[in-house]
Amino acid sequence: MDATVDAQLRADGTTFTAADARLLRAVAETGSVSGAAADLGRSRARALERIETLEAGFGALVERHRGGASGGGSDLTDEAQSLLTRFDRLRATLAGTASVEERVLPGTVRDQEGELGVVDTAAGAVRARLVAPPDREPPRVGDDVQVGIRSDAVTLLAPADSPPADSTSARNRFEGAVVEIDSGTAVARVAVDVGGPEALVATLTHESLDRLALDAGDQVVVTFKATATRAIAVE
């Protein structure tokens, strides 16, 4: 199963999507709303209506020039260029997030301090951010949750090199055995059994993998920050 994420920006009840980004870029490339509509297979009326809807939420996006020696046309405003830049950054961030492997541990919130909580799981106590699902309150003490641990947030250390738990900002600390190593082409993937239902996965550079000199069965210390770990209530 492949997971996909659709980037969206919202302002005053108006949603800006990839289709809207294509419309604005077509206006910039063709120099007119009519040309953009033709390129995208839309009617000019529908393209104008959509631009007006977007402008009600995001401000002036298209500057229209009437008549004159150039015959008129349309240009994107600075606000439109800024909006497209923000949208591109969001898409890049979401694409990176969606491509990162994540392990999920079921558990129950035992303690809470503000946005952070302690969750009892089969692997042990995990400190995590208590995140609210859409249209719901954040989980509270006693709630069943799913704790998401992203592979790019996990650090592996040799037991002899591991500092005391209270001397680092990575408050989650587990010991386990390496069960799988995939060197990959760009980055390495290391799975570690820490006693939960699934092995935790760490994404490492090849330099880090070589430095650790890991083999299957080796003992390692797994650490990750509470602020990079999410606990979401089970629906």
Q: In CATH terms, what is the fold-level topology of the largest domain? A: OB fold (Dihydrolipoamide Acetyltransferase, E2P)
Question: For the largest beta sheet, what order do the strands appear in spatially?
Answer: 5-6-7-14-8
- Name given to the CATH homologous superfamily of the largest domain: RNA polymerase II/Efflux pump adaptor protein, barrel-sandwich hybrid domain
Q: Distance between termini?
A: 21 Å
Overall spatial form? elongated
**CATH architecture descriptor text of the largest domain:** Beta Barrel
Count of β-strands: 14
Give the uncertain stretches in residue-range form: none
**What is the highest CATH level, the class of the largest domain?**
Mainly Beta
| Share in β-strands | 35-45%
Work out the radius of gyration. 25 Å
Number of domains: 2
Question: What's the number of helices?
Answer: 5
Mean pLDDT, as a whole number? 86
Biggest sheet architecture: 5 strands, mixed, barrel
